[in-house]
Design goal:
The complex is a heterodimer of chains A (315) and B (263). Chain A is α/β, with parallel strands linked by helices. In chain A, 37% of the residues lie in helices and 27% in strands. Chain A folds into two domains: 222 residues, P-loop containing nucleotide triphosphate hydrolases (Rossmann fold, 3-Layer(aba) Sandwich), CATH 3.40.50; 66 residues, Alpha-Beta Plaits (2-Layer Sandwich). In chain A, the strands form three sheets. A six-stranded mixed sheet of chain A has the order 6-7-8-3-9-10, with helices on both faces. Chain A has a four-stranded antiparallel sheet with strand order 2-1-4-5, with helices on one face. The longest helix of chain A is centred in the middle third of the chain and has 16 residues. The two termini of chain A are 40 Å apart. Chain B is mostly helical and 263 residues long. Chain B has one domain. Helix content of chain B is 77%, strand content 0%. Chain B has eleven helices and no strands. Chain B is elongated, with a radius of gyration of 19 Å. The chains are: A alpha/beta (315), B mainly alpha (263).
Amino acid sequence: MTGAAILAEGLGRRFGDIVAVDGVDLEVPAGTVLGLLGPNGAGKTTIVRILTTILRPDRGRATVLGLDVARQPQAVRTVIGLAGQYAAVDENLTGRENLRMVGRLTHQRREVIAPRADELLARFDLSAAADRPVRTYSGGMRRRLDLAAALVHRPPVLFLDEPTTGLDSRGRSDLWAVIGELVAEGMTLLLTTQYLEEAERLADRIMVIDGGTVIAEGTAGELKRRLGATIIEVRLADATAAGDARGRLAGTGAAEVHDDGRTVAVTVADPGRAVLEVVRILDAAGLTPEWLTVREPTLDDVFLQLTGHKAAAGE
Amino acid sequence: MSEATLAHRSRVAWAFYDALAVAQRNLIALFRVPTTLVFSTVQPVIFVLMFRYVFGGSIQIQGFRYVDYLMAGIFVQTVTFGSINSGIGLAQDLSTGLIERFRSLAMARSAVLAGRTLADSVRNLIVIVLIITVGFLVGFRVHTGPLALLGAVALLLLFGFAMSWLMALIGLTAGSAEAAQAASFPLMAVLVFASNAFVQTRTMPGPLRAFADHQPVTATVDAARALLNGGPTAGKVLGSVAWSLAVVAVFAPLAVRRYRRSA
């Protein structure tokens, strides 16, 4: 067994004429976190489904802890946990019943099932709701229960497919905190996400996926340096002023006018200095913006930079 | 893998243990959300009342009081239509992502389906007992004995179990609960109505009669009728059991294969 907890070589999968995954190589060292970043339809979920034995690859091979996902699927299943985009828990059962069911289905000893369920309920802040049907849970509670269910059998490798999609910001930060703890305990994690912020927050390394292939790879810092880390946006009074400002700001960073015709976005590597420069240039030209914001790049910005097209197939 | 697991059991033992865990989950849902149970009961009750009091007066069956003839048909109809729930339940589990989780666990591949069909057999038992009670209220009587009645219930459960595997295959293939319902209802309706469940087949036109005389619902109604009313029984029971076993033998492997292959 190598140091890679998850290894894939030339992974490919078609559905009819559609190539969902097209030659993906990846390697996740034990105890680290890989983030697969990409829009809907990029092939992230298909990769996860192959690595979790749910789907067989058409070509290439993949192993988890040295076990081949296509040839030894039952063995792979004992060492992985999966939590998906949909909270895959039974609505009619209580939280406790859901975890105990998974305990039985992962073949835990009867005497450890109940305490393990209680432990996970406490850890994920679900003890108070443990005996209520999941039907009554909030979206965030369901996701936490779903994650707890993936951990019942203490798998060393965890797959999270868009763990926070559809959650509000409170639910998202709660879940991030919980995932962060698991990682700190040495869990090997592969997660998919549409949010650059999420990948940056949780992942050691990020792979940007588009059209079933890896189009960029690196740490969040490396990707951002390649992309120009920060975006300064200024809204001007009209299109003329915006065109004027774009010309003057082109020296500061890559500057372009948004679809609305009067917002100029400048992608910069050094936000502190660049903001001062933008303000000075605008002031000198007598251009007073309606507002000015500084923001981190979104997945859309990353895509625009990497592929020249927007992250398509958005929800 | 943690040492807390039970690695020593055989594959068959695991398949059974896993199926029971899934069945338990389905039964909790059945009793916690009893609408399925209620709807499974309301429809046959309406049929009992309709055929007993609306149509029954103009149907003459030689050698039977019509209510006694009718109830065997109603029982088989109940378990046949009830089996549609197996398909609907599986289609729902597919669409909520629950089956995705089950597929990622090292459990028996047959367990989700076997657990569903076992739980549906328990539901069938409850509904049959309710419908027998309704039958007694409208004049139905068992003319054989308690053992034969138990035999009839067992026969009906076996038949419902078999039909559940057929419905499981449809439910896994259909893609949604609505599609599963839409796909299975016509099939079940043909089996139930083009049979001897409510009327004798001899008034049916040739080809229809040929179908009606050689299909599993008719065979099972014949067997149930014999067990409840007397007369030659053994051959009919064997006929029904053979149909049920054949349906399981064909559709259980197909359904499990469908489950293994991802949707």
